[in-house]
Design brief:
With about 375 residues, the protein is an alpha/beta fold. The chain has 13 helices and twelve strands. β6, α7 and β7 form a beta-alpha-beta unit. The radius of gyration is 21 Å and the shape is globular. Bound molecules: pyridoxal-5'-phosphate (PLP). The site of pyridoxal-5'-phosphate (PLP) has 12 residues, from α3.
Length: about 375
């Protein structure tokens, strides 16, 4: 049975070029990049070349890039690191549709006495900008908002948020994990102060990512214990992972124009589902969205049942956040958008990538309608 992989917001296939470079780095770049000898200096060069490749993808200086283990670590570093140096300001502004990495970091900050306030979204998942502006008082330590939503693909207006924050001298951290590699991300023109991202969302390896920290932004060190990463994050570098991320970043920059083709495939799939299956709707359709994501609500069904039948037919998708599958509660994102429970319970996220083929979409269009029809017939309304 063919695998049709439409779960790229959970993770992506590692680009073969990245795999090759990682294997070579494991073989030849095994030395410690902090060592003075020649093999150590070779490993250092691999790390710094990769840092440059990633910096070019998001348009920052290499010295503004802290290499980490991925999105979750970067987000925790950013939120805790900035809040710590901003006392006595003790308010953090975020949204109710953030990834669990941000939500978890906020829970931890609450226990440290930080007042976390969530600015709401409308039914299309768009941020209430007026409310955000209203909340940006003198007691705000920082703002943390995502660029692209992992469940719906809805984009926040990051440059507009950055401008509001800049005018008030409030540091703005953006979770760019789902945006990098899918849409043009330029930290300089966007005006963000900090941005988290993760290699495995743009065809790099898992367990490696980065945190952009604009020069001049103050933050505490979260992982002391070494001179690495300008003393911001101690520990011997994950050389092969960093090399793989560098190659993936370069490929992502080169292939970005292909996202138009991906958007056309996504739109074709979406149109077909809406036209052939009654009682379906696209969650977040009225918002500006990532080109690769569609979140479709199949009314009166449970997403787990749909996913199971799709998976039996080789189609990989997801019920919103991968980490929330297995739970019968509709996702916190769809709840924040006030999507009707009847629809939210049966929401499925299909997320494509530049590797997605026309044939995969044709097969998905064949597989999905009978699965929904079957479930609607056998399950009581
Ligand atoms: N932020 C968003 C929006 C994500 O989608 C994810 C991963 O799903 C993360 C953060 C966490 O990234 P990582 O898996 O690299 O820790």
């Amino acid at each position: 049975m063919e695998t049709i992989y439409l779960d790229n917001n959970a993770t992506t296939q590692t680009a073969p070029e990245a795999v090759e470079a990682m294997v070579a780095a494991m073989r030849e770049g095994y030395a410690n990049p902090s060592s003075m000898h020649r093999p150590g200096q070779y490993a250092r060069k691999l790390v710094e070349d990769a840092r440059g490749q990633v910096a070019r993808l998001i348009n920052c200086q290499s010295s503004e890039l802290v290499l980490t283990s991925g999105g979750t670590e970067s987000i925790n570093d950013a939120l805790q690191g900035v809040c710590r140096v901003r006392r006595p300001r003790n308010r953090l502004i975020t949204s109710p549709v953030e990834h669990s990495a941000t939500r978890g970091a906020c829970d931890k900050l609450r226990t440290d006495g930080i007042d976390v306030f969530e600015v709401g979204v409308d039914s299309a998942g768009r941020l209430d900008m007026e409310r955000l502006e209203h909340e940006l008082g003198d007691d705000v330590a920082m703002v943390s908002l995502m660029w692209a939503n992992n469940e719906t693909g809805v984009l926040f207006d990051v440059p507009a948020v950055a401008q509001l924050c800049r005018e008030r001298r409030i540091p703005f951290h953006c979770d760019g994990t789902q945006a990098v590699g899918k849409i043009p991300v330029d930290v300089k023109t966007a005006g963000v102060d900090l941005m988290s991202f993760s290699a495995h969302k743009f065809h790099g390896p898992k367990g490696v990512g980065g945190l952009f920290v604009r020069r001049g932004v103050r933050m505490a060190t979260l992982i002391p214990g070494g001179p690495q990463e300008m003393t911001r994050r101690g520990g011997t570098e994950n050389v092969p992972g960093i090399v793989g991320m560098g190659v993936a970043a370069e490929l992502a920059a080169r292939h970005l124009p292909e996202m138009d083709r991906v958007a056309a495939l996504r739109d074709r799939l979406e149109r077909h589902i809406l036209q052939t299956i009654p009682e379906t709707s696209v969650n977040g359709a009225a918002g500006e969205r990532l080109p690769n994501t569609t979140n479709i609500g199949f009314a009166r069904l449970q997403s787990e049942a749909i996913l199971l039948l799709l998976s039996e037919r080789g189609l990989c998708a997801s019920a919103g956040a991968a980490c929330s599958s297995g739970s019968l509660e509709p996702s916190h994102v769809l709840r924040a958008m006030c999507i009707d429970f009847k629809i939210a319970h049966g929401a499925i996220r299909f997320s494509l990538s530049r590797y997605t083929t026309e044939r995969e979409i044709d097969l998905a269009m064949e597989i999905i309608p009978p699965v929904i029809q079957k479930l609607r017939t056998v399950l009581p309304t």
